[in-house]
Every structure is written in structure tokens, then in C-alpha cells.
Inverse folding.
């Protein structure tokens, strides 16, 4: 039997039954969705994440701290965690979460959403430990120790290897299951049975893009230019370009001349900014990036391959025929595919269900609305301003996570 | 035609006697010709080279010869001859779930590869066909349509020995009766032995130790990577010492090569370094900038070889890390770059929202 390491509350090796008993004990004491106790915990955790000196070298932890501030959280819960007329929202019960291996801090978001929904969460982290994740666990545990008893025992974080037996047992007692993973993993975990009334959301491999208005770009200078370069850097490099929301395709919108002029200016600035921000791919990552670039040259018949620095390589395409297949390659660490379109709407023809996030810059709000409504579900679950691509939200991949983790009870007095 | 006669001349001298400057002059000519040869015959290669090294035809240094990452042969098949001319496909050994590398050899390239191998082995055996002891079992040759790395090495070497004897049983234990018979049949002779490094370490040496065998007549060639031995903290020196202590074998030569370059073998010299033969060379590149690095600085190993004509593999960037420790040291009459292989580049971490299969395979 594979051992399960309980990371939160810090403990030792535990059995599946230990974990299930803890979760069941936790939900024996009800906690209302949107409870003040859970909100108070979020605020305390936010302060801890933003103020603790140990988080300085971990921007992803600070980003979570920022996201948890009441100023951010209150509107989010108002938008997504409200009681529609004639209903009362109740917790799902036990939610079983399998967050992704590539974004070490994502479990922090899903854990908090589970708590705000009033649940107990069993969260499975994948094998490899990571300093960022360890620190976040520690800070959550410290905050929980000071929290109201009603929220204290509701988060159970465990680590175990790929073991269908364990995953099946947790699945068999949960009320909702959330799975992040590669296409194969998500499909595989879907195949493990859930109780008949449980619900499930799967978050599989996605592809993300960025659209830049070339004409507007060429008019830019000074702080506005610096700010755009930083936003683009943030979107692309924040998770080493490995998150589903990291843009890997850059759509330049404009005529040939404008795009030529804008891109010639943009890439060296982006590359220099990445280096100034101390971005550097790992050796293995750089080899993988090189492999992907050569494969792209083989498959996509690009017009140009430009290596600006170890941080940034760009492959410019004339022809997008091979792009759908190439979107399945999991390249990252500073490799962009780029192409030009006359109008933003032309991008729609190349959009598919796999496309998750489009971060945009330089368009009129009407253009964005028109583009979005023109897609009609063809692709892109998030269309956000440049700089916002890596920011997690309670609505993810088109799905309101609060809805998955709560139920609506119709109440007619 | 000039290129061909220059190439042939490389096979008329000791394969490790060429000094670095002369080697670079000779190989530059041959490799530029090969780049052109493949550009004209392999459309994908031309596309890549025109993007990565548009001035390849004007290369003045070996480091300006364009390279392909060796993994490209895992995902795609690149050929410079029509499919009908392919005689053999060599595949890399790979652990389960990993994509195999494949290269296609036509008659000419297959012939060149075996000529090269014969040339190198001949320098070890003084061109004698010695009794050949194979530290492996016959199951290694089981053919699944393609030739695996273990089989390729064994089959490649067999013609240069005689009375080949597979000394391991199916369970990899040593067949002592068979070994005794073999040693008896060749009581007074020198013996050539070959085995994969970890098989020799794991199965052959302990058995010889227990039997207190004296195999001082044996010259042992071994290859196949140090990964498994590094996990047990065994390095080349420890390996050689153990062979000396356990079996009294003092002539031990590691060789370094890859399935994508059959016949291009770097051979260990007395100084413990691996030397490319006259028709091949090594460049070390910075893993990030990919700039070539001077002697003494470790980086990614790039291998150049004049052998591949049926596929564009004459300049391959590997995922191995190594360092050139000496040049033209002349130890035992061996010249050129002396390479130490330090291991593989660390694998990229999982990417995408993915924790399932290795990255690129899905879109093959």
C-alpha cells in the first residue's frame, strides 16, 4: 500500500481512512458559504503571505496574498458566491481536489475557494516537493492555527504518488472532485467512479495567446511602453511559460509595415526585460525549448526563427496550418510562436476549444466585446488585459468554482 | 569527389592519430559538403538550416556547421535518400514510455558505419579477429523489426571477432560452463570482450570475483551509459579498478556513442578520457547561450561525424553534458580532443497542466 504523507495539518504517514475520517469530522460542524469566519481567515492569510519575509523570493505566493485581500475577495464573492432569488447556497460537503503539478501554488486558491464555500477539502499534491509549495503550506498552517475553530480542520493536504487505489477511495466519498492535469490524466481520473450525486470539474491541457495592436504599439513611448513590456513579461514568464494561461502564441494585429516595426522593437525589449528580471530557463528547460523550436521549424515551415537571448526565442509563422497540432506540444520557458492578422476578428478563425486565455493590449473595449461575442464558445475561456493572464480567478476554464463546490437549495416559504 | 577521397584518406591512418588543427581543417571541408548534400536532399533539413544558419555554406569554423538537436530524430523521420533505399533502421534503446530515436541507413551509410567501426576496433585489436566474448545474452538480439542499441552494438562488433560467445544466461547470470569452455578453447589467445557497462558491473564482475577468475588476456570494451552506475556512485576509475581486482582485466576501454550515429565511437584512452576518431569531433556548447565553450568548461556535447549520408545527422547536439579536458595530449599516441562525459542534462520539469506523458509525443 502506497503511503500517504499528510502535509496539512502537518503530520506523518496516514491511511486513506484517517484522512476520510478527518474530513467527515470537519463537515459535521456546518459552515455557511461566504461565512465571516472563512473571510476572516482569508484576510489573516493574506496579511501573512504579504508580510512574511520568507515570501519575498516567491512572487507567486505574494500574488496569492494579494488576491486574498478583502478588496479583491469581496467583489469576487459578491459576483460568484451569492444566493440567487428563491435559493439558499449550501456547501457541497467534502471536495477532493487534484491541483496541477506545474503551478505549485494553485492549490492555495482552490483550498480557499473550498473554505469560502463551507466545505472540507482533501487536496492531493503530486510527488515532487518544491520550496515554494512547502513555504505556502507552512504559512497556511500558521494562519489556520490562529483561525476560528470552525475553519481550522477543514483543509487536509496530502501527498502520494500515482495510486489509483487511493484516488478511487477519496473519490468514493467526496461530494465534488476537481482535477487538473494533462489530457490523459484528466480522462483517467474521470474514469474512477464518484458517488452518484457528486459532481466533477476537469481542467485539462490548454493553450493561451496574446494579441497586440501593432499600430498602437508604434505610438507608444516612455512609461506606457515600459508598462506594456512588463505586462507581457508577466503574462509569458510568470510560471516559466508553463501554466495553461501562459501565452505561447503572439497574434500581432495590423498591416505588414506596422507589425514589422512593432515586433522589431518589442522582442528585444521583452528579452532584455526578462533578463533584467533575472529570468533564466533551467538547463533542462532550455534543451526542451530548443527541441520544441526545431520541431516547430520542421512542422510549421515558419518564416523566421529569432533567438534574442537564452530568455526568448520567437518563431514567426506565415501559415497557421500546423498550429492546431502544435498547440498540443507543451513548450515553454521563453518560446513564442507569432503571426500577423489584419484584424483581431481574423484570429477567431484560428481559435479552438483548447484555447484558454487571450491577453490583449491596444484594442478598444468594443473590439474586444465584438471579438468575444463572435467566438460563441469556439474557444478562449478568458479574455483579459495584458498582465492579467497568470491571475487566477474563481471562474476558471469557463466554470464557476464556487458553483462546483456548493449546491443551491430552492426555498419557497 | 574530392570530399570522398579526403574522407577515404581518414581511414588509412590510425583513427586517433590526427592532431586537432589538421582534423578541424579536414572535417570542415567534409562537413560543409555534407551540409550541402543534406540541404539538397532533405527538404525539412534545408528549411531548418536556412532558418538557423543561413550562412552555413560560408562556415570557417567547425562550430559554424549547423546542428540538429538529437531529439528531433525521436519525433520525426529525416532522410536524405528515398525510402526505398533504406536498408536498416537503427533505434535507440529507451525505457518504457519514452519515444525511441530512429535513423535510417542506406547501403552507403551502413557501409561507411561498419568501415568506421572496423577501423576503430582494428586499432584496439591490431586488426586481428580475436575470439569474442559478449557480456550479454542472445535475447538482446531479439528482433522487433528494428535494431535496438544493445543489438546494434553487438551485431556491429561481431564481424571483428570470431567464435562469438554470449556469456550471460537469460536471467543475466553468468553461464560459467560456457565461459569455461570458451576460455579453454582459446587458452593461449588474446580475447576481445564487449558488454554494456551496467551489465558488466552488475552481473559479470561479481561472478568473476566469486570464481576468482584470471581474465588478464581479455580486452574489455564497454558502453551504454553511466546512469545506473552513477546512482550507485560508481565512476569510470572505480569501474576499471574493480575489473582489475575482480577479474584481473587491465585493458578496459569505455566507449561513447549514440544510436543516432552508428559507427561514430569515442574510445577511452589510458588517461580515462574519450577520444573521437579522425572522422568525428566534439564541440561543447553552453546550455543556455549555445555558444561553443573552450577547453575545461562543461556544457552540452555536440558530435560531428562525416558518416551519415542517408540522414542529416552529421552534426548533432546531444542532451549529454561533458567537458573537453585536453587537446592533443599525445598520451599513448592519441591526439585530438579528450572528452569527459559528465551525465545527462537535467530533464525539464513537467510542463503544461500536465503530469502525464512526456511532452512532445502526442502530436507525432
Amino acid at each position: 500500500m502506497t503511503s500517504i504523507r499528510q502535509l496539512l495539518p502537518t503530520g506523518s504517514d496516514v491511511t486513506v481512512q484517517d484522512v476520510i475520517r478527518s474530513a467527515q469530522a470537519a463537515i459535521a460542524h456546518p459552515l455557511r458559504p461566504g461565512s465571516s469566519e472563512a473571510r476572516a481567515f482569508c484576510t489573516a492569510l493574506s496579511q501573512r503571505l504579504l508580510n512574511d519575509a520568507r515570501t519575498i523570493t516567491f512572487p507567486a505566493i505574494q500574488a496569492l496574498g494579494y488576491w486574498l485581500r478583502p478588496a479583491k475577495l469581496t467583489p469576487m464573492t459578491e459576483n460568484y458566491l451569492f444566493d440567487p432569488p428563491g435559493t439558499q447556497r449550501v456547501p457541497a460537503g467534502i471536495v477532493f481536489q487534484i491541483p496541477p503539478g506545474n503551478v505549485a501554488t494553485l492549490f492555495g486558491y482552490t483550498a480557499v475557494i473550498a473554505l469560502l464555500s463551507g466545505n472540507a477539502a482533501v487536496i492531493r499534491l503530486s510527488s515532487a516537493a518544491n520550496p515554494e509549495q512547502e513555504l505556502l503550506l507552512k504559512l497556511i498552517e500558521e494562519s489556520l492555527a490562529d483561525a476560528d475553530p470552525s475553519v481550522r480542520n477543514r483543509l487536509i493536504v496530502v501527498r502520494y504518488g500515482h495510486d489509483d487505489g487511493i484516488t478511487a477511495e477519496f473519490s468514493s466519498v467526496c461530494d465534488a472532485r476537481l482535477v487538473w492535469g494533462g489530457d490523459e490524466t484528466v480522462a483517467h481520473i474521470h474514469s474512477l467512479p464518484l458517488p452518484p450525486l457528486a459532481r466533477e470539474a476537469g481542467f485539462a491541457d490548454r493553450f493561451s495567446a496574446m494579441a497586440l495592436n501593432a499600430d498602437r504599439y508604434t505610438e507608444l513611448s516612455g512609461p506606457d511602453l515600459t508598462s506594456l513590456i512588463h505586462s507581457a513579461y508577466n503574462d509569458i514568464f510568470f510560471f516559466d511559460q508553463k501554466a495553461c494561461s501562459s501565452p505561447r502564441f503572439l497574434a500581432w494585429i495590423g498591416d505588414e509595415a506596422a507589425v514589422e516595426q512593432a515586433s522589431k522593437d518589442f522582442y528585444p525589449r521583452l528579452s532584455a526585460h526578462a533578463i533584467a528580471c533575472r529570468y533564466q530557463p533551467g538547463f533542462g528547460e532550455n534543451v526542451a525549448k530548443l527541441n520544441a523550436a526545431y520541431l516547430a521549424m520542421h512542422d510549421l515551415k515558419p518564416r523566421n526563427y529569432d533567438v534574442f537571448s537564452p530568455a526568448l526565442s520567437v518563431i514567426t509563422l506565415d501559415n497557421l496550418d500546423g498550429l492546431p497540432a502544435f498547440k498540443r506540444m507543451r513548450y515553454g520557458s521563453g518560446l513564442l510562436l507569432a503571426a500577423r492578422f489584419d484584424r483581431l476578428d481574423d484570429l477567431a478563425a484560428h481559435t479552438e476549444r483548447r484555447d484558454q486565455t487571450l491577453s490583449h493590449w491596444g484594442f478598444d473595449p468594443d473590439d474586444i466585446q465584438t471579438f468575444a461575442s463572435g467566438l460563441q464558445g469556439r474557444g478562449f475561456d478568458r479574455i483579459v488585459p495584458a498582465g492579467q493572464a497568470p491571475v487566477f480567478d474563481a471562474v476558471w476554464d469557463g466554470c464557476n468554482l464556487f458553483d462546483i463546490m456548493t449546491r443551491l437549495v430552492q426555498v419557497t416559504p | 569527389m574530392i570530399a570522398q577521397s579526403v574522407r577515404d584518406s581518414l581511414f588509412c591512418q590510425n583513427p586517433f592519430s590526427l592532431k586537432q588543427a589538421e582534423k578541424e581543417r579536414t572535417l570542415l571541408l567534409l562537413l560543409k559538403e555534407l551540409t550541402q548534400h543534406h540541404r539538397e536532399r532533405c527538404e525539412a533539413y534545408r528549411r531548418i538550416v536556412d532558418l538557423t544558419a543561413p550562412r552555413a555554406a560560408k562556415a570557417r569554423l567547425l562550430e559554424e556547421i549547423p546542428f540538429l538537436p538529437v531529439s528531433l530524430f525521436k519525433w520525426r523521420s529525416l532522410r536524405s535518400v528515398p525510402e526505398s533505399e533504406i536498408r536498416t533502421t537503427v533505434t535507440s534503446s529507451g525505457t518504457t514510455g519514452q519515444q525511441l530515436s530512429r535513423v535510417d541507413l542506406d547501403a552507403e551509410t551502413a557501409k561507411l558505419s561498419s568501415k568506421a567501426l572496423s577501423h576503430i576496433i582494428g586499432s584496439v585489436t591490431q586488426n586481428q579477429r580475436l575470439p569474442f566474448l559478449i557480456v550479454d545474452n542472445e535475447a538482446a538480439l531479439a528482433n522487433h523489426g528494428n535494431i535496438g542499441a544493445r543489438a546494434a552494438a553487438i551485431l556491429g562488433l561481431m564481424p571483428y571477432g570470431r567464435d562469438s560467445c554470449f556469456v550471460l544466461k537469460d536471467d543475466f547470470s553468468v553461464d560459467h560452463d560456457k565461459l569455461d569452455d570458451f576460455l579453454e578453447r582459446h587458452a593461449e589467445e588474446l580475447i576481445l570482450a564487449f558488454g554494456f557497462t551496467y551489465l558488466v558491473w552488475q552481473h559479470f564482475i561479481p561472478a568473476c570475483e566469486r570464481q576468482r577468475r584470471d581474465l588478464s588476456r581479455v580486452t574489455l570494451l564497454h558502453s551504454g551509459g553511466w546512469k545506473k552506475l552513477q546512482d550507485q556512485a560508481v565512476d569510470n576509475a572505480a569501474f576499471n579498478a574493480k575489473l582489475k581486482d575482480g577479474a584481473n582485466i587491465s585493458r578496459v576501454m569505455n566507449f561513447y556513442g549514440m544510436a543516432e550515429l552508428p559507427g561514430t565511437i569515442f574510445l577511452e584512452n589510458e588517461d580515462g578520457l574519450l577520444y573521437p576518431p579522425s572522422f568525428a569531433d566534439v564541440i561543447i556548447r553552453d546550455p543556455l547561450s549555445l555558444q561553443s565553450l573552450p577547453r575545461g568548461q562543461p556544457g552540452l556535447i555536440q558530435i560531428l561525424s562525416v558518416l551519415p549520408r542517408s540522414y542529416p545527422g552529421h552534426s548533432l547536439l546531444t542532451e549529454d553534458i561533458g567537458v573537453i579536458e585536453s587537446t592533443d595530449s599525445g598520451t599513448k599516441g592519441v591526439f585530438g580532443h579528450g572528452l569527459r562525459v559528465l551525465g545527462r542534462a537535467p530533464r525539464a520539469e513537467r510542463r503544461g497542466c500536465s503530469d502525464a506523458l512526456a511532452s512532445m509525443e502526442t502530436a507525432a
